[in-house]
Automatic annotation (TrEMBL):
Protein's name according to its UniProt entry: Chloride channel protein
PROSITE patterns: CBS
This protein's GO CC annotations: early endosome; endosome membrane; Golgi apparatus; plasma membrane; synaptic vesicle
Domain CBS: 567-633, 664-722
Source organism per UniProt: Suricata suricatta
């Protein structure tokens, strides 16, 4: 008895121990599941920030490599090389013995026509080499690595799947080629592609957690947060990144995604700040601080810059889309490598003689944004100084422009025309290409010229009624750098139609609350002017050009049509392709899959009743049948497929049936045939649906796809629905 009692106690103790172990493991699993979202955000932020830092460092070095090399360490950029030199003086801080131009290194000449021509040729050769490597890598290894990536990200977040677009190869090739194309001197930026890079990071890390890899809705939430991290490291603007994802990219943005986006953007910005790629403890090259307030009379030129930004946006979108359409419909599109080489050669040949187009676009924007302090050596700061002036460094009064300023003005005018034209042909080529930086450069050049004009007017005509109340002689009235910043915001807003996120990004760049009103005025004006010529921004225009099925959340649908007016099949069309729950063979289903290209098939009880029980995805059906043929014995072409819990009654000599209930979606989204299309459109937008089934009293009537909705919207807008092409 004692032995039995002891054995029973031991058995009970083992059961209690195993249950406690199970409960601990379940607790850990639940904890991991709860924290997996934050872990994914942490990993995205760390990798996105690291990649952005590496890209910035590599671009800095390779851009300078076109002009010369550091003798002490060839991997140093010009600035880093001169930092380490003990012979560098403040007056000649851009010149040091350790840094040699190619003419000095190859023929031992630094001045003269032969040295200039040799440096010119080396600049062009390096640019061509970088561009050729970039387009070749994209074409061979990752065709999806081309372009900005933002139109495709918007389309993916709307519920459309582009397989391979966020893959590992795309991430690797886009990171490498982004360095090459920016270093080549082409009129493009890295900021848009960094959003694509960050989303590739998000896709990679979400695939490691089943919670996200098996749920497309949750995966899209991760990608929304990754887009915020991408903008955060692109501009050093974490809050602007979150607002960009909310305003410009995301379809569905719940509060949970807002918090996680903020966390990912914070980690990414912190990681980039730790790397400190620019050596100035800032996240971007063109961080500025101004010391002079703006005045109410300056709102007029700020609004004029907004008008210019809207007109530039309209001109760019129409010209670029026309050129891209020509590229797609003519033989030009068959020679992407040749196109890149030709555009790079033209860019390098025209850019080199002008100092404002020779340097990298980020450095150009940095110089245009800068306020002229006492230590500035730029041509833009070549003013005639009063020898009796004794003022603090940060409060230099307005002065008459010197020869350098007038020279810089006509060079900037030529650079502005060149940038406007060449950017139209550059954006959309088969290389990574962002639009933020070229657009900001166009606006910054126009703004700086307007700012210098207003400054000189205020100096020479301070007794005019416009200037009399706020600009006294000897005062620091006008800051031309502020006009450059406002112009940059206006042009970027005109092209992308961004408003709130744009103002916050520019505010985070400057760190000054004081300049929010000028930025808001310019951003709103540019949007109004651009919207007067067309509602589409550049990304929406490229979405339509590429034929992606995208429902813009900004478009309103106010027509009184019903679901029955849009659903297929219509009168005269063949009946809907469906699967029955227990009467079709494997061969029947395989034949149906071969003869159609539908994304999936409704499953009904029988063809007579048409009572809906679920929806089966095409891809899952193919995989399930393939696996069953390989791993299950007795599965042949005549095997009955069933989607019910219990197998159907079959004759004794029938082959083994195939159960596919696990691939069946038992709760597909359905609407009745009398549901207003306004409601259906809202459902497609907010849930990112690809299709929706139409029923009446549980009986299947038809199906509405996103493409059907887009064609119907085009028809309601008096457009030819058949002209809406899909890729």
């Amino acid at each position: 008895m004692q032995c039995r009692w002891a054995a029973g106690m031991r058995h009970a103790a083992v059961q209690i121990t195993s249950k406690s172990k199970e409960s601990i493991w379940e607790f850990i699993k639940s904890l991991l599941d709860a924290w997996s979202g934050w872990v994914v955000m942490l990993l995205i932020g760390l990798l996105a920030g690291t990649l952005a830092g590496v890209i910035d460092l590599a671009v800095d070095w390779m851009t300078d490599l076109k002009e010369g090399v550091c003798l002490s360490a060839f991997w140093y950029s010009h600035e880093q090389c001169c930092w380490t030199s003990n012979e560098t003086t403040f007056e000649d801080r851009d010149k040091c013995p350790l840094w040699q131009k190619w003419s000095e290194l190859l023929v031992n000449q630094s001045e003269g026509a032969s040295a200039y021509i040799l440096n010119y040729l080396m600049y062009i050769l390096w640019a061509l080499l970088f561009a050729f490597l970039a387009v070749s890598l994209v074409r061979v290894f990752a065709p999806y690595a081309c372009g900005s990536g933002i139109p495709e990200i918007k389309t993916i977040l709307s519920g459309f799947i582009i397989r391979g677009y966020l893959g590992k190869w795309t991430l690797l090739i886009k990171t490498v080629t982004l360095v090459l194309v920016v270093s080549s001197g082409l009129s493009l930026g890295k900021e848009g592609p960094l959003v694509h890079v960050a989303c590739c990071c998000g896709n990679f890390f979400s695939s490691l957690f089943s919670k996200y890899s098996k749920n497309e809705g949750k995966r899209r939430e991760v990608l929304s947060a990754a887009a915020a991290a991408g903008v955060s490291v692109a501009f050093g603007a974490p809050i602007g990144g979150v607002l960009f994802s909310l305003e410009e990219v995301s379809y569905y943005f719940p509060l949970k995604t807002l918090w996680r986006s903020f966390f990912a953007a914070l980690v990414a910005a912190f990681t980039l700040r730790s790397i400190n790629p620019f050596g100035n403890s800032r996240l971007v090259l063109f961080y500025v601080e101004y010391h002079t307030p703006w005045y109410m009379a300056e709102l007029f030129p700020f609004i004029l810059l907004g008008v210019f930004g809207g007109l530039w946006g309209t001109l760019f979108i129409r010209s670029n889309i026309a050129w891209c359409r020509r590229r797609k419909t003519t033989k030009l599109g068959k020679y992407p490598v040749l196109e890149v080489i030709v555009v790079t050669a033209v860019t390098a040949i025209i850019a080199y003689p002008n100092p404002y187009t020779r340097r990298s676009t980020s450095e150009l924007i940095s110089e245009l944004f800068n306020d002229c302090g006492a230590l500035e050596s730029s041509q833009l700061c070549d003013y005639i100084n009063d020898p009796n002036m004794t003022r603090p460094v940060d409060d230099i009064p307005d002065r008459p422009a010197g020869v350098g300023v007038y020279t810089a003005m006509w060079q900037l005018a030529l650079a502005l025309i060149f940038k406007i034209v060449i950017t139209i042909f550059t954006f959309g080529m088969k290389i990574p290409s962002g639009l933020f930086i070229p657009s900001m450069a166009v606006g910054a050049m126009a703004g700086r010229m307007v700012g210098i004009g207003v400054e000189q007017l205020a100096y020479h005509h301070h007794d005019w009624i416009v200037f009399r109340n706020w600009c006294r002689p000897g005062a620091d009235c006008v800051t031309p750098g502020l006009y450059a910043m406002v112009g940059a915001a206006a042009c970027l807003g005109g092209v992308t139609r961004m408003t709130v996120s744009l103002v916050v990004i520019m505010f985070e760049l400057t760190g000054g609350l004081e300049y929010i009103v000028p930025l808001m005025a310019a951003a709103v004006t540019s949007k109004w002017v651009a919207d007067a010529f067309g509602k589409e921004g550049i990304y929406e225009a490229h979405i339509h050009l590429n034929g992606y099925p995208f429902l813009d959340v900004k478009d309103e649908f106010t027509h009184r049509t019903l679901a029955t007016d849009v659903m297929r099949p219509r009168r005269g069309e063949p009946p809907l392709s469906v699967l029955t729950q227990d009467s079709m063979t494997v061969e029947d289903v395989e034949t149906l899959i071969k003869e159609t290209d539908y994304n999936g098939f409704p499953v009904v009880v029988s063809r007579d009743s048409e009572r809906l029980i679920g929806f089966a995805q095409r891809r899952e059906l193919i995989l399930a049948i393939k696996n069953a043929r390989q791993r299950q014995e007795g599965i042949v072409s005549n095997s009955i497929m069933y989607f019910t819990e219990e197998p159907p009654e079959l004759p004794a000599n029938s082959p083994h049936p195939l159960k596919l209930r696990r691939v069946l979606n038992l709760s597909p989204f359905t609407v009745t045939d009398h549901t207003p299309m306004e409601t259906v459109v809202d459902i497609f937008r907010k849930l990112g649906l690809r299709q929706c089934l139409v029923t009446r009293s549980g009986r299947l009537l038809g199906i509405i796809t996103k493409k059907d909705v887009l064609r119907h919207m085009a028809q309601m807008a008096n457009q030819d629905p058949e002209s809406i092409m899909f890729n």
